[in-house]
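QA checklist item 7 of 12: single-chain prediction sanity check.
[x] sequence parsed
[x] length recorded as 494
[x] structure emitted
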Amino acid sequence: MPKKQFVFVKMLVITILMLMTSISEVVFANEDESTNGNLDISKIDEYMANEIERLNLPGASLAIVKEDQVEYIQGYGIAKSNGTNMTPQTPIVIGSVTKSFTALAIMQLVEQGKIKLEDPVQSYLPWFQIANKEESKKITIQHLLHQTSGLSTYDGQVSISQGDQTLKEHIQSLVNTELTYPVGEQYQYSNLNYSILGLIVEEVTNKSYKEYINEYIFKPLEMSNSFTDPKDDLNNTIAEGYQTMFGFKVPTEQLNHEGTVPSGYIISSAEDMANYMIALVNQGNFKGKSILSENAMSALHLPSSFISNDTYYAMGWEVNNEGIFHNGWTENTYSKVLLDGEYGISLQINSMDYFNLNAYDDIVSGINKLVHKEEPSVSDSNPFMKYIIIDLILLAIVALIVWSAYRIFKPKNRKVTNFRRILNGMTILVCYWLLPLIILIGFPKLFGPLSTVTLFAPGIGHLFFLIPLLLLIVGVIKLVRATLTRVGYFKKLT
């Protein structure tokens, strides 16, 4: 064998041996890590991989804790459209899980004697007022925490799109807001309750909400990849959020939510949420530091306001037989935390799908079954089918509107009978007037505020509003056309 060929073969053999060694090491590493204590990691990863593929999720991060230990932590998929991997350190906006942080801050101040739960809001915000002055005086800190202030879910949804002002300006703008129930009478989940609580934290401590959370929660819990302001992410590590538009995932930027941070816009990573859960399941203790006493932590999780189906609202948490939990979603992210008494599970997804939220929630339930050695129910349904059906229906309606508009101006040579005129008139009245008006008037009750629906379900949400509007326009044109035609008909007779 020539010398050059011998050298080449020798190098090839060495390379193959190195690759085999590397592969062998990976296999052994995976085998060693297939179980972690009581957890079957391979099953958890398999389950997550299946759900990520089925739901077409760009990325997700998962943290599982038990007692004072992190049992498992992992990132899946991508954090950004440029291909950046999702890691346990990648921050994601956690939505309404933020409320648990705001409630924790309030209870810290209660322990310090700076706040009393029974005190009216006006004790801390003397200028605070809603439309009814007398009812304004009755709302207490406890009412806000338990979601029983009388402020509505609808007004809380509207507030999501009104975050481009300071927290104080946001709360001052409630001066004309009406209560939908008397104070303390009925549970109504409203973002406004926790935005008000955030401002109370500021007024009582003389610090911004951001400063307080950083100093008294993030710092002692070593949450170094958590923020209340995305501008503080100097290294640009926050995951890019994706929205589902007509069934397809599209990367989008969030609105400015400066005025609504305490109710839904804290940013955190799986690693940091693991530390947070350790403190929660260990009566407020983390690595020898206490962020809240055992009694106060118990009060934080005490079931108080009945929601439905044996589920109660506590303080920034929901409670039922599954455990203590809260989910959160923004226009383009999702999160959920579950504490079941033994384990703590945190899931974060850099995607939002308005029409498949239950499927997102079910992921945590599936993980909880796996950590308890139970088999989760794995769905084989394709969420994209919902969008195919909705898209086809909307496409058919838009095509019908275009066809109707075209026929208005198409010359008609045939004689129109009186019966035909009456039938056309009834069709215009029902399909182009009554039905669109019912949809437009009932839109907020059926789907929520227009501003929120178009924010959380772009594309389809816009068409839900535009289609009845287009029908009304076509109806007006048809009516005018029919009237002019009728006038012309009578002129011919005379």
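[x] summary fact logged: The CA atoms of residues 444 and 450 lie 7 Å apart.
[ ] second reviewer sign-off
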